[in-house]
Amino acid sequence: MDFDKFTQAIDKKKVEEVTNNSGKSYIYYLALEKLEVDKIDFTAFSLSDTTHVYSRIEESLTYEDEDGALFVDPNHQFGEIINLIHKIDALEEAPRERVPSSFRFI
């Protein structure tokens, strides 16, 4: 293995600055979990994080019915997160059956 070539390839693709998206991630978490106000850590995000996430969520909305229920575009990244959460919840609620092994020692 040529370690010099490997090192050069890593150096070409390295990123000098990593953006911090933890504030935006926290706001998405708040939107999905619907935490009570007294449990929110307001120091974990900024106003610009809130504005960015608000606009991204607003872009994902496709319809609002007369009861106020919102419909999210399933192809939008926020819709994909919601769909993934629903799938994980369904997997956690699925009955767990242990299939007997044909081998005695497993």
What coarse outline follows from CA principal-axis ratios? flat
Secondary-structure element series: HHHEEH
Strand order of the largest sheet: 1-2
Rg (CA only): 22 Å
The amount of beta strand, in percent, is 5-15%
Structural class: mainly alpha
The pLDDT mean sits at 84
First and last CA, distance: 40 Å
Helix content: 40-55%
Number of helices: 4
Q: What kind of sheet is the major sheet? A: 2 strands, antiparallel
Low-pLDDT stretches are none
DSSP strand count: 2
Describe it.
- This protein is mainly α and 106 residues long.
- Helix content is 51%, strand content 7%.
- The chain is built from four helices and two strands; from the N terminus they run H-H-H-E-E-H.
- It has a two-stranded antiparallel sheet with strand order 1-2.
- Strand 1 and strand 2 form a beta hairpin.
- Helix 2 packs across helix 3.
- The longest helix has 17 residues.
- The chain is flat, with a radius of gyration of 22 Å.
- The model has no long low-confidence stretch (mean pLDDT 84).
